[in-house]
Design a protein that fits this description.
205 residues, alpha+beta, twelve-stranded antiparallel β-sheet, 2 helices
């Protein structure tokens, strides 16, 4: 695989209700996560990895009260600019047919459970077929999803570009030697993926 670039990540979190565990990294609490972008020419996929200071924690929310098997990843506006700068020239270099079929817009707004904290003001954008792998390497397992939902969120403390995935409840063998989040997006979806970032920036303005 070829490394396309690296930039800072803001926040990533996964809940596994059956094991009452969370995999999390959060720059606001002092973690230092990075996001690496690789091109996998053999499989025609963009590989996105969030790693470094990714920790396994006990789940504080109660699975019996609706805690979801879910992954949420946030980037702030400056990080979004860095991602666009990495991906734009790579996507422009591809000579392929991109998927641009009309797609219904989801509404991912919700709460973890009825007494939880609501999301900020949300603009649903789209969904993309992609493989999301969350690797609990220290516990020897991983879980995955096959679709990501994308929206933009406005909070009182700043704007966030949000990737969300409803994860399978099937527990898999670990997918690597370190705790990490990995997203694999087919080349045909990359034009749409980049467009969601530009839509988010226009909404933030």
């Amino acid at each position: 695989m070829k490394l396309l670039g690296r930039c800072k990540a803001q926040y990533a979190s996964n809940l596994v209700a059956s094991k009452k565990l969370v995999l999390r990294t959060d720059r606001d609490r002092g973690d230092n996560p990075f996001i690496d972008f690789y091109s996998n020419e053999a499989d025609q996929k963009l590989v996105i990895k969030i790693l470094n200071t990714v920790y396994i924690e006990d789940m504080n929310s109660n699975p019996a009260r609706g805690a979801k098997n879910r992954t949420d990843i946030h980037f702030n506006e400056s990080q979004l600019d860095a991602i666009i700068n990495i991906l734009s020239p790579f996507i422009d270099s591809l000579s392929i047919t991109f998927d641009d079929a009309p797609r219904s817009t989801p509404d991912p707004t919700g709460m973890e459970y009825p007494n939880g904290l609501p999301l900020g003001k949300t603009k649903p954008i789209t969904w993309i077929p992609a493989r999301m792998i969350v690797n609990y390497a220290d516990k020897d397992f991983s879980i995955e999803a096959t679709k990501i939902y994308i929206d933009a969120e406005k909070y009182t403390r700043g704007n966030k570009f949000h990737l969300g995935a409803n994860m399978s409840t099937t527990i898999l063998n670990k997918a690597g030697s370190i705790n990490s989040f990995e997203l694999l997006v087919g080349y045909s979806q990359l034009k749409r993926f980049l467009h969601t970032m530009n839509v988010a920036k226009m909404w933030f303005a």
